[in-house]
């Protein structure tokens, strides 16, 4: 296997995918720091809105790889790390290459601008997979070029675009994904997911703006649709139903500060940025032209049980996959 | 992400998996060479029987990473590389760590012993994931300890065991895997696989000892069951059928040097070491207690079509997965 820019960028992209959706409303971003030709010092990501950006986490980890007992290890806020590194880097990064999946931000928001930090640390080279399309944050590469830091843009751009895609979509409109769980052979009957997969679904519910579910599922299963496994926030719910009559004594309707819409007008989804659908193949058929992703949880067992119930033809690209415990998670992007 | 022994060993294991089955009758083995603390120089694997072992490929690549124009690049046979490195290493590996998924062989066979090469190159440390259980080849760690090379055994041992498992099985008996292809939702109707997935299946056919197939499939589909997409060798065929009457004019029976068994006695499979089953769920039901793996090719599309046809309950562990073009390949080990 070739150990080159693509290899290091792939490590950054894979690390970022671990926090895909979790970083909402921010993009998932990964960063790798390499000293000299191929001494790998850090593989980090942006984990959650309000926390440090990928570059900051990676630069901190890289410095601590050499100086594990440095006082830097006690600094946790982005601002503290910025300030400490700018004062104490002592040229440490001058022979380093920094691989980042998205152009470093040029904008002082909740956290200081990464481009400014890199400008001060003066790494030998910054390799960027995808430019920033956000009018407020962009311009990071320009800032670095102006102080003569070597910049390379476009390494693994297609993979970085797929990583960035949910952000691009929710930032300019609505990103809609369908969560499904099945066995290896596609059976959707009965209880399928493990506890760790269920906890992951609750982690997603804690992040999304809105959950869409079919009226029949609400009537039959009477789900609460909260995020209790992780003590998280319960999202607003959109019940897709022509028949507007529901037993509002079920727990779903009793959650404080939750809005519940009952409607068959899907246009209302577009008031939200980040929508998860949980449901059956019926709803999949209705939504298929508006869907961005299917997030498919696959439990590795074969069971007798029905799979496709309708005439549905959809083609996907597997943009990423990972494990949740022993189960697979696949991020499937609808081909248009 | 922590950059530690596990991180480097995982790179070696993943590289080796690319050649799982293809290395038959040899085990799939991977090797990573790291200079100093974390300067990654090579990620290589054993690719095919008769070719260089993983360690030899990795040590060569590591040396060439520093000296890309060295005459070593013209050496391709294992013996040549051994001899050249032993003469010309000049202490290059003394500050290197060598990660290898299987204990280096201690036995001069088709290729010289890797333990002997490492003994001469004297790396700082050799990290071995799994000891060699083969009576002929084992003892490599002992050889290295005797010359005071630091040895660590057991890093990611469970993952290395899964990598080694097919070899352990075919080396001491018969390894049987079931090749299946389906859509995302488990449909097995119609033509499913892409051309690259078909070529991969032919690559497997070229390597296996025996292919098992059901009598009805032969009668209905009249398949040739050769490896023509890769101009490879056609394996022997075992037609599982109570009814022994077949039209022997179909191409399957016309391939020179191919043995075709027609039998309903599965015990005969045990005369072979490496058996692939291609067939329907019926055959899966018959074989489920003898099966080691399912190798599942998943085409990322949803199509209306049947999945499980029988009452089958089998649990699996996903031991590895990869891509073949846009399709997924999953290596599923039956849980016992």
Helix/strand structural class of chain A: alpha/beta
Which geometry of chain A do the CA atoms define? elongated
Number of domains of chain A: 2
* Assembly classification: homodimer
Please report which band the strand proportion of chain A falls in: under 5%, 5-15%, 15-25%, 25-35%, 35-45% or over 45%.
Answer: 25-35%
Pair of chains with the largest interface and how many residues each contributes: A-B, 45 and 46 residues
Calculate the mean pLDDT score of chain A and round it: 93
Order of helices and strands of chain A: HEEHHEHEHEHEHEHEEEHEEEE
Q: Which percent bin holds the helix content of chain A?
A: 25-40%
Based on DSSP secondary structure assignment, what is the total number of beta strands of chain A?
14
